[in-house]
Amino acid sequence: MIRAGRSRVVAIGVEALSPERADWLQPLARERSRLVLPAPRLRRLGFDRTSPGAIALPRLDLGRIETLSLQVGARFDAPVAALTRLDKAALELARVALVLPAIVVAKVAGPAVAQAGLIEVEAAAIEQYRAATVASLHIVARAPVPLEGAPDTEFVVFRGGEGLRDQVAVIVGKPDFDDTVTVRLHSACLTGDLFGSLKCDCGDQLRHTAKFMAENEGGVLLYLDQEGRGNGLSNKIRAYKLQTQGFDTYDADEVLGFDHDQRGFDFAAAMLSQLGVKRVRVMTNNPQKIAALEAAGLEVDSHQRILGRKTDQNVMYLAAKRDRAGHMIDVDSASQKGSAKE
Question: Among 132, 198, 215, 290, which one has the highest count of C-beta atoms within 10 angstroms of its own C-beta?
Answer without folding.
Answer: 290
